[in-house]
Protein backbone atom coordinates (compact mmCIF):
# COMPACT_ATOMS: atom_id res chain seq x y z
CA UNK A 1 0.00 0.00 0.00
CA UNK A 2 2.97 2.31 0.52
CA UNK A 3 3.34 2.47 -3.27
CA UNK A 4 -0.10 1.47 -4.57
CA UNK A 5 -2.11 4.11 -2.70
CA UNK A 6 0.00 7.17 -3.62
CA UNK A 7 0.23 5.87 -7.18
CA UNK A 8 -3.56 5.57 -7.40
CA UNK A 9 -3.97 9.07 -5.95
CA UNK A 10 -1.39 10.47 -8.37
CA UNK A 11 -3.02 8.84 -11.39
CA UNK A 12 -6.48 10.00 -10.22
CA UNK A 13 -5.21 13.57 -9.91
CA UNK A 14 -3.55 13.39 -13.31
CA UNK A 15 -6.74 12.12 -14.93
CA UNK A 16 -8.88 14.57 -12.96
CA UNK A 17 -7.16 17.71 -14.23
CA UNK A 18 -7.69 16.50 -17.80
CA UNK A 19 -11.42 15.92 -17.33
CA UNK A 20 -12.13 18.93 -15.10
CA UNK A 21 -9.68 21.29 -16.87
CA UNK A 22 -9.41 23.69 -13.90
CA UNK A 23 -8.60 27.26 -14.86
CA UNK A 24 -5.21 27.50 -13.18
CA UNK A 25 -2.57 30.10 -13.99
CA UNK A 26 -1.03 27.65 -16.47
CA UNK A 27 -3.14 25.07 -18.29
CA UNK A 28 -1.19 23.95 -21.33
CA UNK A 29 -0.03 20.60 -19.99
CA UNK A 30 -3.54 19.12 -19.77
CA UNK A 31 -5.98 21.05 -22.04
CA UNK A 32 -8.03 20.36 -24.23
CA UNK A 33 -9.87 17.09 -23.77
CA UNK A 34 -13.28 18.71 -24.33
CA UNK A 35 -12.56 20.21 -27.74
CA UNK A 36 -14.55 17.30 -29.26
CA UNK A 37 -17.56 15.66 -27.60
CA UNK A 38 -16.26 12.16 -28.30
CA UNK A 39 -12.86 12.57 -26.61
CA UNK A 40 -14.00 12.49 -22.95
CA UNK A 41 -16.05 9.38 -23.66
CA UNK A 42 -13.06 7.70 -25.25
CA UNK A 43 -11.03 8.60 -22.17
CA UNK A 44 -13.70 7.10 -19.88
CA UNK A 45 -13.66 3.98 -22.04
CA UNK A 46 -9.90 3.64 -21.61
CA UNK A 47 -10.16 4.04 -17.85
CA UNK A 48 -12.97 1.48 -17.62
CA UNK A 49 -11.43 -1.19 -19.84
CA UNK A 50 -7.64 -1.06 -19.78
CA UNK A 51 -7.16 -2.09 -16.11
CA UNK A 52 -9.35 -5.15 -16.75
CA UNK A 53 -7.79 -6.03 -20.11
CA UNK A 54 -4.23 -5.63 -18.85
CA UNK A 55 -5.03 -7.77 -15.79
CA UNK A 56 -6.23 -10.57 -18.07
CA UNK A 57 -3.32 -10.20 -20.47
CA UNK A 58 -0.82 -10.27 -17.59
CA UNK A 59 -1.93 -13.83 -16.79
CA UNK A 60 -1.07 -15.23 -20.22
CA UNK A 61 1.59 -17.95 -19.85
CA UNK A 62 3.51 -16.68 -22.90
CA UNK A 63 4.19 -13.43 -21.07
CA UNK A 64 6.25 -15.21 -18.42
CA UNK A 65 8.84 -16.40 -20.93
CA UNK A 66 12.22 -14.66 -20.86
CA UNK A 67 12.98 -12.15 -23.59
CA UNK A 68 15.03 -13.38 -26.53
CA UNK A 69 17.03 -11.60 -29.20
CA UNK A 70 15.28 -10.73 -32.41
CA UNK A 71 16.97 -11.92 -35.61
CA UNK A 72 18.55 -9.11 -37.63
CA UNK A 73 16.22 -9.74 -40.56
CA UNK A 74 13.17 -9.29 -38.36
CA UNK A 75 14.52 -6.02 -36.97
CA UNK A 76 15.20 -4.68 -40.48
CA UNK A 77 11.73 -5.70 -41.65
CA UNK A 78 10.14 -4.08 -38.60
CA UNK A 79 12.11 -0.89 -39.23
CA UNK A 80 11.04 -0.66 -42.89
CA UNK A 81 7.37 -1.28 -42.09
CA UNK A 82 7.40 1.16 -39.19
CA UNK A 83 9.25 3.79 -41.21
CA UNK A 84 6.75 3.67 -44.08
CA UNK A 85 3.79 3.65 -41.69
CA UNK A 86 5.08 6.66 -39.75
CA UNK A 87 5.89 8.51 -42.96
CA UNK A 88 2.34 7.97 -44.24
CA UNK A 89 0.81 8.82 -40.86
CA UNK A 90 2.93 11.93 -40.46
CA UNK A 91 2.02 13.10 -43.95
CA UNK A 92 -1.70 12.54 -43.40
CA UNK A 93 -1.81 13.90 -39.83
CA UNK A 94 1.28 16.09 -39.31
CA UNK A 95 2.02 17.71 -35.98
CA UNK A 96 0.87 21.35 -35.94
CA UNK A 97 3.53 23.97 -36.63
CA UNK A 98 3.58 27.01 -34.37
CA UNK A 99 7.23 27.61 -33.47
CA UNK A 100 9.65 29.81 -35.39
CA UNK A 101 12.30 27.11 -34.91
CA UNK A 102 10.35 24.93 -37.32
CA UNK A 103 10.37 27.71 -39.92
CA UNK A 104 14.10 28.26 -39.43
CA UNK A 105 14.91 24.58 -39.80
CA UNK A 106 12.73 23.94 -42.84
CA UNK A 107 14.06 27.07 -44.59
CA UNK A 108 17.63 25.95 -43.88
CA UNK A 109 16.97 22.57 -45.50
CA UNK A 110 15.10 24.17 -48.39
CA UNK A 111 17.80 26.72 -49.15
CA UNK A 112 20.75 24.46 -48.40
CA UNK A 113 22.60 27.38 -46.82
CA UNK A 114 21.73 27.01 -43.12
CA UNK A 115 24.53 27.07 -40.56
CA UNK A 116 24.10 26.57 -36.85
CA UNK A 117 26.67 24.82 -34.71
CA UNK A 118 23.98 23.69 -32.28
CA UNK A 119 22.75 21.41 -35.09
CA UNK A 120 26.05 21.34 -36.98
CA UNK A 121 26.21 17.85 -38.51
CA UNK A 122 22.43 17.42 -38.54
CA UNK A 123 21.96 20.45 -40.82
CA UNK A 124 24.88 19.28 -42.96
CA UNK A 125 23.26 15.86 -43.28
CA UNK A 126 19.78 17.18 -44.14
CA UNK A 127 21.07 19.69 -46.66
CA UNK A 128 23.23 17.06 -48.37
CA UNK A 129 20.35 14.59 -48.45
CA UNK A 130 17.97 17.20 -49.88
CA UNK A 131 20.44 18.02 -52.65
CA UNK A 132 20.82 14.32 -53.39
CA UNK A 133 17.13 13.45 -53.77
CA UNK A 134 15.72 16.69 -55.18
CA UNK A 135 13.67 17.21 -57.32
CA UNK A 136 12.33 13.66 -57.00
CA UNK A 137 11.34 14.49 -53.43
CA UNK A 138 10.25 17.87 -52.10
CA UNK A 139 12.14 19.51 -49.25
CA UNK A 140 9.19 18.81 -46.95
CA UNK A 141 9.20 15.20 -48.11
CA UNK A 142 12.90 14.96 -47.25
CA UNK A 143 12.28 16.20 -43.71
CA UNK A 144 9.21 14.06 -43.08
CA UNK A 145 10.71 10.95 -44.65
CA UNK A 146 13.98 11.27 -42.75
CA UNK A 147 12.27 12.12 -39.47
CA UNK A 148 10.01 9.11 -39.97
CA UNK A 149 13.15 6.97 -40.25
CA UNK A 150 14.57 8.54 -37.08
CA UNK A 151 11.24 7.94 -35.37
CA UNK A 152 11.18 4.28 -36.38
CA UNK A 153 14.68 3.87 -34.99
CA UNK A 154 13.61 5.59 -31.77
CA UNK A 155 10.58 3.35 -31.22
CA UNK A 156 12.50 0.16 -31.98
CA UNK A 157 15.49 1.16 -29.85
CA UNK A 158 13.21 2.07 -26.96
CA UNK A 159 11.60 -1.36 -27.25
CA UNK A 160 15.07 -2.91 -27.36
CA UNK A 161 16.07 -1.03 -24.20
CA UNK A 162 12.87 -2.20 -22.51
CA UNK A 163 13.76 -5.81 -23.40
CA UNK A 164 17.05 -5.34 -21.56
CA UNK A 165 15.25 -3.98 -18.51
CA UNK A 166 12.48 -6.57 -18.25
CA UNK A 167 12.94 -10.07 -16.87
CA UNK A 168 10.09 -11.42 -18.98
CA UNK A 169 8.25 -10.63 -22.16
CA UNK A 170 5.35 -9.07 -20.30
CA UNK A 171 7.66 -6.78 -18.32
CA UNK A 172 9.41 -5.70 -21.51
CA UNK A 173 6.02 -5.08 -23.14
CA UNK A 174 4.88 -3.00 -20.15
CA UNK A 175 7.97 -0.75 -20.24
CA UNK A 176 7.69 -0.40 -24.02
CA UNK A 177 4.05 0.66 -23.88
CA UNK A 178 4.74 3.17 -21.11
CA UNK A 179 7.43 4.69 -23.32
CA UNK A 180 5.52 4.65 -26.58
CA UNK A 181 2.49 6.29 -24.94
CA UNK A 182 4.51 9.23 -23.58
CA UNK A 183 3.49 12.46 -25.30
CA UNK A 184 7.10 13.60 -25.71
CA UNK A 185 7.77 10.49 -27.79
CA UNK A 186 4.53 9.98 -29.68
CA UNK A 187 4.13 13.62 -30.75
CA UNK A 188 7.62 13.66 -32.27
CA UNK A 189 6.89 10.65 -34.48
CA UNK A 190 3.73 12.27 -35.93
CA UNK A 191 5.18 14.13 -38.90
CA UNK A 192 7.24 16.51 -36.76
CA UNK A 193 9.10 18.94 -39.02
CA UNK A 194 11.82 20.00 -36.62
CA UNK A 195 15.11 18.48 -35.46
CA UNK A 196 13.85 16.65 -32.39
CA UNK A 197 13.09 13.20 -33.85
CA UNK A 198 16.87 12.90 -34.25
CA UNK A 199 17.83 13.41 -30.57
CA UNK A 200 14.88 11.19 -29.70
CA UNK A 201 16.39 8.39 -31.80
CA UNK A 202 19.94 8.95 -30.54
CA UNK A 203 18.84 8.93 -26.90
CA UNK A 204 16.90 5.69 -27.37
CA UNK A 205 19.77 4.03 -29.23
CA UNK A 206 22.25 5.13 -26.58
CA UNK A 207 20.05 3.67 -23.80
CA UNK A 208 19.76 0.40 -25.70
CA UNK A 209 23.52 0.18 -26.21
CA UNK A 210 24.47 1.27 -22.70
CA UNK A 211 22.09 -1.26 -21.16
CA UNK A 212 23.62 -3.83 -23.51
CA UNK A 213 27.07 -3.13 -22.06
CA UNK A 214 25.71 -3.60 -18.53
CA UNK A 215 24.15 -6.90 -19.64
CA UNK A 216 27.49 -8.03 -21.09
CA UNK A 217 26.13 -8.17 -24.63
CA UNK A 218 27.63 -5.03 -26.22
CA UNK A 219 31.18 -3.69 -26.55
CA UNK A 220 31.62 -0.34 -24.73
CA UNK A 221 32.86 1.14 -28.01
CA UNK A 222 29.30 1.55 -29.32
CA UNK A 223 27.68 3.68 -26.60
CA UNK A 224 30.96 5.61 -26.33
CA UNK A 225 30.83 6.46 -30.03
CA UNK A 226 27.24 7.61 -29.77
CA UNK A 227 27.94 9.76 -26.69
CA UNK A 228 30.99 11.56 -28.14
CA UNK A 229 29.59 12.08 -31.65
CA UNK A 230 26.02 13.04 -30.71
CA UNK A 231 26.78 16.63 -29.55
CA UNK A 232 28.22 17.45 -32.99
CA UNK A 233 24.82 16.57 -34.44
CA UNK A 234 22.76 18.24 -31.71
CA UNK A 235 24.57 19.99 -28.90
CA UNK A 236 21.97 19.14 -26.25
CA UNK A 237 22.99 15.49 -26.49
CA UNK A 238 26.03 16.28 -24.37
CA UNK A 239 23.70 15.25 -21.53
CA UNK A 240 24.40 11.62 -22.43
CA UNK A 241 28.00 11.91 -21.20
CA UNK A 242 27.55 11.52 -17.40
CA UNK A 243 26.04 8.05 -17.76
CA UNK A 244 29.22 6.87 -19.49
CA UNK A 245 30.68 6.62 -15.98
CA UNK A 246 28.44 3.62 -15.33
CA UNK A 247 29.28 2.15 -18.74
CA UNK A 248 33.01 2.45 -17.97
CA UNK A 249 32.65 0.83 -14.53
CA UNK A 250 30.54 -2.04 -15.85
CA UNK A 251 32.67 -2.62 -18.95
CA UNK A 252 35.90 -2.51 -16.93
CA UNK A 253 35.05 -5.70 -15.10
CA UNK A 254 36.63 -8.96 -16.19
CA UNK A 255 39.96 -10.03 -17.61
CA UNK A 256 39.76 -7.95 -20.79
CA UNK A 257 37.88 -4.98 -19.39
CA UNK A 258 40.80 -2.54 -19.52
CA UNK A 259 41.61 -3.48 -23.10
CA UNK A 260 37.99 -3.04 -24.20
CA UNK A 261 37.84 0.38 -22.58
CA UNK A 262 41.15 1.42 -24.17
CA UNK A 263 39.88 0.44 -27.63
CA UNK A 264 36.61 2.29 -27.02
CA UNK A 265 38.44 5.43 -25.85
CA UNK A 266 40.87 5.53 -28.79
CA UNK A 267 38.23 4.94 -31.47
CA UNK A 268 35.76 7.39 -29.89
CA UNK A 269 38.46 10.07 -29.63
CA UNK A 270 39.41 9.61 -33.27
CA UNK A 271 35.77 9.76 -34.36
CA UNK A 272 35.22 12.96 -32.38
CA UNK A 273 38.25 14.44 -34.10
CA UNK A 274 37.00 13.56 -37.57
CA UNK A 275 33.55 15.03 -36.78
CA UNK A 276 34.84 18.56 -37.37
CA UNK A 277 36.10 17.87 -40.92
CA UNK A 278 32.81 18.54 -42.84
CA UNK A 279 32.26 22.00 -41.37
CA UNK A 280 35.74 23.18 -40.44
CA UNK A 281 37.96 21.49 -43.00
CA UNK A 282 40.28 19.86 -40.47
CA UNK A 283 40.10 17.23 -37.72
CA UNK A 284 40.11 18.03 -34.02
CA UNK A 285 38.85 21.60 -34.56
CA UNK A 286 37.02 21.41 -31.25
CA UNK A 287 37.87 24.97 -30.22
CA UNK A 288 36.41 26.39 -33.42
CA UNK A 289 33.31 24.23 -33.03
CA UNK A 290 32.74 25.37 -29.44
CA UNK A 291 33.26 29.01 -30.40
CA UNK A 292 30.73 28.76 -33.21
CA UNK A 293 28.26 26.91 -30.98
CA UNK A 294 28.52 29.70 -28.41
CA UNK A 295 28.01 32.34 -31.09
CA UNK A 296 25.00 30.50 -32.51
CA UNK A 297 23.30 30.01 -29.15
CA UNK A 298 21.80 33.51 -29.38
CA UNK A 299 22.16 33.86 -25.63
CA UNK A 300 21.53 37.58 -25.87
CA UNK A 301 17.93 36.94 -26.92
CA UNK A 302 17.02 35.15 -23.69
CA UNK A 303 16.45 36.39 -20.16
CA UNK A 304 20.18 36.33 -19.42
CA UNK A 305 22.40 38.66 -21.48
CA UNK A 306 25.45 36.40 -21.08
CA UNK A 307 24.17 32.83 -21.16
CA UNK A 308 21.70 30.42 -22.72
CA UNK A 309 20.78 29.43 -19.18
CA UNK A 310 18.13 31.16 -17.12
CA UNK A 311 19.16 33.76 -14.54
CA UNK A 312 19.34 32.26 -11.01
CA UNK A 313 16.55 34.46 -9.67
CA UNK A 314 14.20 33.28 -12.42
CA UNK A 315 15.13 29.62 -11.81
CA UNK A 316 14.02 30.08 -8.19
CA UNK A 317 10.77 31.86 -9.05
CA UNK A 318 7.31 30.37 -8.58
CA UNK A 319 6.52 31.16 -12.22
CA UNK A 320 9.40 28.99 -13.38
CA UNK A 321 8.43 26.22 -10.96
CA UNK A 322 4.99 26.18 -12.55
CA UNK A 323 6.43 26.08 -16.06
CA UNK A 324 8.77 23.21 -15.15
CA UNK A 325 5.86 21.29 -13.63
CA UNK A 326 3.77 21.76 -16.74
CA UNK A 327 6.69 20.84 -18.99
CA UNK A 328 7.21 17.47 -17.31
CA UNK A 329 3.44 16.85 -17.16
CA UNK A 330 3.16 17.52 -20.88
CA UNK A 331 6.22 15.54 -21.96
CA UNK A 332 5.87 12.47 -19.73
CA UNK A 333 3.68 12.95 -16.68
CA UNK A 334 3.23 9.21 -16.14
CA UNK A 335 6.97 8.57 -16.34
CA UNK A 336 7.66 11.21 -13.70
CA UNK A 337 4.93 9.85 -11.43
CA UNK A 338 6.47 6.39 -11.68
CA UNK A 339 9.88 7.87 -10.91
CA UNK A 340 8.58 9.62 -7.82
CA UNK A 341 6.54 6.73 -6.38
CA UNK A 342 7.81 3.25 -7.42
CA UNK A 343 11.18 4.85 -8.17
CA UNK A 344 11.58 6.05 -4.59
CA UNK A 345 10.51 2.60 -3.37
CA UNK A 346 13.10 0.95 -5.61
CA UNK A 347 15.80 3.28 -4.31
CA UNK A 348 14.93 2.51 -0.68
CA UNK A 349 14.62 -1.21 -1.35
CA UNK A 350 18.03 -1.44 -3.03
CA UNK A 351 19.87 0.86 -0.60
CA UNK A 352 22.86 -0.95 0.88
CA UNK A 353 22.25 -4.03 -1.27
CA UNK A 354 23.66 -5.15 -4.60
CA UNK A 355 24.41 -2.38 -7.05
CA UNK A 356 21.88 -1.94 -9.88
CA UNK A 357 23.87 -0.81 -12.91
CA UNK A 358 20.75 -0.39 -15.05
CA UNK A 359 19.10 2.00 -12.61
CA UNK A 360 22.38 3.86 -12.08
CA UNK A 361 22.93 4.35 -15.82
CA UNK A 362 19.40 5.60 -16.43
CA UNK A 363 19.55 7.72 -13.29
CA UNK A 364 22.64 9.51 -14.62
CA UNK A 365 20.56 10.35 -17.68
CA UNK A 366 17.48 11.54 -15.78
CA UNK A 367 19.35 13.79 -13.31
CA UNK A 368 21.20 15.93 -15.91
CA UNK A 369 18.06 15.99 -18.06
CA UNK A 370 16.02 17.41 -15.17
CA UNK A 371 18.77 19.92 -14.43
CA UNK A 372 18.57 20.90 -18.11
CA UNK A 373 14.80 21.41 -17.85
CA UNK A 374 15.31 23.67 -14.85
CA UNK A 375 18.28 25.66 -16.14
CA UNK A 376 17.90 25.95 -19.93
CA UNK A 377 16.20 29.07 -21.23
CA UNK A 378 13.37 28.22 -23.65
CA UNK A 379 13.47 31.58 -25.36
CA UNK A 380 10.03 31.11 -26.94
CA UNK A 381 8.56 30.21 -23.56
CA UNK A 382 8.09 26.75 -22.06
CA UNK A 383 4.82 26.25 -23.93
CA UNK A 384 6.07 27.09 -27.42
CA UNK A 385 9.53 25.58 -26.79
CA UNK A 386 8.33 22.38 -25.10
CA UNK A 387 10.07 20.24 -27.73
CA UNK A 388 13.43 21.46 -26.44
CA UNK A 389 12.84 18.95 -23.62
CA UNK A 390 10.73 16.39 -25.48
CA UNK A 391 13.23 13.61 -26.11
CA UNK A 392 13.96 13.27 -22.39
CA UNK A 393 10.76 11.20 -22.26
CA UNK A 394 12.92 8.28 -23.39
CA UNK A 395 14.89 8.21 -20.14
CA UNK A 396 12.03 9.11 -17.79
CA UNK A 397 9.75 6.45 -19.27
CA UNK A 398 12.47 3.79 -19.22
CA UNK A 399 13.58 4.41 -15.65
CA UNK A 400 10.02 4.99 -14.42
CA UNK A 401 8.85 1.83 -16.17
CA UNK A 402 11.80 -0.16 -14.80
CA UNK A 403 11.06 1.01 -11.25
CA UNK A 404 7.38 0.15 -11.74
CA UNK A 405 7.94 -3.43 -12.94
CA UNK A 406 10.60 -3.96 -10.26
CA UNK A 407 8.03 -3.03 -7.62
CA UNK A 408 5.48 -5.21 -9.41
CA UNK A 409 7.63 -8.30 -8.87
CA UNK A 410 7.05 -7.88 -5.14
CA UNK A 411 3.36 -6.91 -5.47
CA UNK A 412 2.12 -8.85 -8.53
CA UNK A 413 -1.61 -8.72 -7.68
CA UNK A 414 -1.73 -4.94 -7.59
CA UNK A 415 0.64 -4.36 -10.48
CA UNK A 416 -1.43 -5.41 -13.52
CA UNK A 417 -4.52 -3.24 -12.84
CA UNK A 418 -2.27 -0.31 -11.92
CA UNK A 419 -0.37 -0.76 -15.19
CA UNK A 420 -3.69 -0.67 -17.03
CA UNK A 421 -4.67 2.47 -15.13
CA UNK A 422 -1.32 4.13 -15.94
CA UNK A 423 -1.68 3.32 -19.64
CA UNK A 424 -5.28 4.60 -19.59
CA UNK A 425 -4.13 7.86 -17.97
CA UNK A 426 -1.46 8.22 -20.64
CA UNK A 427 -4.16 7.64 -23.25
CA UNK A 428 -6.34 10.38 -21.74
CA UNK A 429 -3.40 12.76 -21.93
CA UNK A 430 -2.83 11.89 -25.59
CA UNK A 431 -6.50 12.45 -26.37
CA UNK A 432 -6.19 15.90 -24.80
CA UNK A 433 -2.90 17.03 -26.33
CA UNK A 434 -1.75 14.93 -29.30
CA UNK A 435 -1.69 17.14 -32.42
CA UNK A 436 -3.54 19.78 -30.40
CA UNK A 437 -0.75 22.09 -29.27
CA UNK A 438 -2.16 24.84 -31.48
CA UNK A 439 -5.55 24.68 -29.73
CA UNK A 440 -5.94 27.67 -27.41
CA UNK A 441 -2.48 28.83 -28.46
CA UNK A 442 -2.99 32.53 -27.73
CA UNK A 443 -4.18 31.81 -24.20
CA UNK A 444 -1.27 29.48 -23.52
CA UNK A 445 1.27 31.94 -24.92
CA UNK A 446 -0.05 34.50 -22.43
CA UNK A 447 0.40 31.92 -19.67
CA UNK A 448 3.92 31.07 -20.82
CA UNK A 449 5.23 34.11 -22.73
CA UNK A 450 8.32 34.36 -24.89
CA UNK A 451 11.61 35.11 -23.18
CA UNK A 452 12.86 37.08 -26.15
CA UNK A 453 14.80 40.19 -25.24
CA UNK A 454 16.08 42.60 -27.88
CA UNK A 455 19.90 42.61 -28.02
CA UNK A 456 21.50 45.72 -26.58
CA UNK A 457 22.92 48.28 -28.98
CA UNK A 458 26.62 47.98 -29.68
Description:
With 458 residues, this protein is mostly helical. The protein contains 22 helices and no strands. Helix 4 packs across helix 5, helix 6 (139-165) packs parallel to helix 9 and helix 20 (393-410) runs antiparallel to helix 21 (412-433). The longest helix is centred in the N-terminal third of the chain and has 27 residues, at 139-165. The N and C termini lie far apart (62 Å). 45% of the residues are buried. The model has no long low-confidence stretch (mean pLDDT 92).
Task: Provide a brief overview of the structure.
It is built from 22 helices and no strands. It is mostly helical and 458 residues long.
Descriptive keywords:
22 helices; globular; single chain; 458 residues; mainly alpha
Low-confidence stretches: none
The proportion of residues in beta strands is under 5%
Which H/E pattern describes the elements?
Answer: HHHHHHHHHHHHHHHHHHHHHH
Main sheet attributes: strand count, strand direction, barrel closure: none
Q: Tell me the number of helical segments per DSSP (H or I, 4 or more residues long).
A: 22
Multimeric status of the protein = single chain
Radius of gyration from the CA trace? 22 Å
How many domains?
A: 1
Task: Lay out the secondary structure.
Elements: H1 4-20, H2 38-58, H3 72-92, H4 100-111, H5 120-133, H6 139-165, H7 169-180, H8 183-186, H9 197-214, H10 221-233, H11 244-251, H12 257-274, H13 277-280, H14 286-296, H15 312-315, H16 318-340, H17 342-350, H18 357-375, H19 381-384, H20 393-410, H21 412-433, H22 441-447
Helix pairs in contact: 1-16, 1-21, 2-21, 3-6, 4-5, 5-6, 6-7, 6-9, 7-20, 9-10, 9-11, 9-18, 10-12, 11-18, 16-20, 17-20, 18-20, 20-21
